[in-house]
Amino acid sequence: MHANDYVIESHGLTRKFGDFTAVDSIDLKVRAGEIFGFLGPNGAGKTTTIKMLTTLLTPTKGEAKVASYNLRTQAPLIRSSIGIVPQEFSLFGELTPLENLWYIGELYGMKNELVRKRSEELLRTVQLYDKKDVPCEGFSGGMKQRLSVAAGLLHMPHILFMDEPTTGLDPQSRIALRELTKKLNEGGITIVYTTHDMEEADKLCDRIAIMNLGRIIALGTSAELKEEYGGGHFIEIIVDRYDQALLSELKRMVDADSVEVHNGTIMLSVRNSAGRLIPSVSRFLEKKGVTVKDLRIAEPSLEAVFINSTKKDRRG
Fold this sequence. Notes:
The protein is about 40% helix and about 30% strand. The protein is α/β, with parallel strands linked by helices. It has two domains: about 5-225, P-loop containing nucleotide triphosphate hydrolases (Rossmann fold, 3-Layer(aba) Sandwich); about 235-300, Alpha-Beta Plaits (2-Layer Sandwich). It has a six-stranded mixed beta sheet, with helices on both faces. The protein has a four-stranded antiparallel beta sheet with strand order 2-1-4-5, with helices on one face. The protein has a four-stranded antiparallel beta sheet with strand order 12-13-11-14, covered by helices on one side. Helix 5 (about 140-155) packs parallel to helix 6 and helix 8 (about 220-230) packs across helix 11. The radius of gyration is 24 Å and the shape is elongated.
């Protein structure tokens, strides 16, 4: 597949549980070779969407293709083309990593020699080879999740679905799993990644779909989302003195949407071109005889994007 090909396409994908609509008419396209993120709070519909795309739940309405296969009529072919890393460890604690992978290979009907070769390769990739003969029940959360990644990759899928894989992990394990995810993606695997961690989505994902109440309310790269929903950039200034007149002049000079002071830091909200304004601000303050202790640009955060996109999402 080429980078511009779509490995996932959905139209009007919907899932209801009784009268409750968990996922509401999602239209989606995921490109081959990207890390595509679903970002949203618990209950936003991320996991339900993943369960439909991985054939674990049947859509109430709508259509989708995954790895070029129809979700409704070719589910077995989809399952053979994807791997899944669930939120919680779902392998056998009493078995060793090698035994767990051997069992999964049996389920996929893989030949013994291929299972042995792939298991050893993958356990080295996820840095568990030295634990290959140790029962998993004593593993840390991070080790279990890395083994889950190996299990999801055993049959050489084209697409790997990772459903909030870092939930409950310590910071070091989260970083290690993110680095592993990037490494796998660089090797050519398309990754669909759900998270409620905005920093994680910002650092890891090529494109992000923000979900709320079962709908995708914003979609794009992190930079695109910040530009559209972030509320602008901030020029942050720390000076030796200021008064209301100075704040008003600064706001007018840079055509700021707002000017606020937080813990002694002047914050000017500007729509764009913040970098071009820095020299002008510096010269202005110098002429006023104000000593500048710090002057910098602050990007909008994905948290601001989520808050603003949620406000824009009007559904009564």
